[in-house]
Amino acid sequence: MTSNLLVALIFIVFGVIIGGLLNLVAKAISFTEPRTAFFSPCHDCSRSWQFKYLIPVIGYILSGRHCPYCQASLPVRIILVEIFTGLLFAFIYWRYGFTWELAMLVFYSSVFIVLLVTDIEQMLLPNIITYPAMIIALVIALLITLFNYVPSWAFVFPPTGFLGILNNYLFNSVLGGVTGFILLLVVALIFRGGMGGGDIKLAGLMGMVMGFPLILVALFLGIMGGGLIAAFLLIARLKGRKETIPFGPFLCLASIAALFWGKDLLIWYLRLI
Ligand SMILES: [Zn+2]
Fold this sequence. Notes:
Layout: H1 2-30, H2 51-54, H3 58-62, H4 77-96, H5 100-122, H6 127-146, H7 169-190, H8 197-210, H9 214-235, H10 248-272
Helix pairs in contact: 1-4, 1-5, 4-5, 5-6, 5-10, 6-7, 6-8, 7-8, 7-9, 8-9, 8-10, 9-10
The site of zinc ion has 7 residues, from loops.
């Protein structure tokens, strides 16, 4: 028990450090101009930061929320991402222990966190993250299939009958990707303007990561969550009717939630109907 707690603490520290790195990656891919140093969360100057300012959480406090070189103010997002990633990684360890799920979920949630940040701040879901992540998701799906592994989030179909083919994880992953891509394409065509190509590709990536039918759960959660928050912001007059709210962050959070609880949610729903 004590050692479990110790490992969970190590995962918090590990997550906080990765969170700091994800902040730097998100900045590097969304701010290509002016050419800034990678080891600096500052958008406004090109100075590489001293190590002490780069230490997650502590560096943010030491810097007093301002770039130590050009005094530009730093977004609160930096420390929020660091703390969120730390807690998330500890949760993943607590839930799955030392399993393949731990490794896969640490990787996938890192991808979704970077996309969440770039979409909130720059309305961008860069291909430089989405495309390589899609390839890695397919390679992981291939390995899962070759080793006959069943990830905890995978929905298991009756092995006999035509649905049995869905238990092939690679096939399932491709089907999930195609389903996500097409469904969001249709949604984007119906609600013109609110959604872009980045969201459609993100839905394809989500499907490849979690497969079918989990992609349906994730899209449902993302669209419901996005719709409710957008309605709230409109009613509370925090956003105007003409302003667009990025949809990607909802898809990213829904993906993480679906990987954790999507299968249970789906089974619960199927029992209801
Ligand atoms: Zn600066």
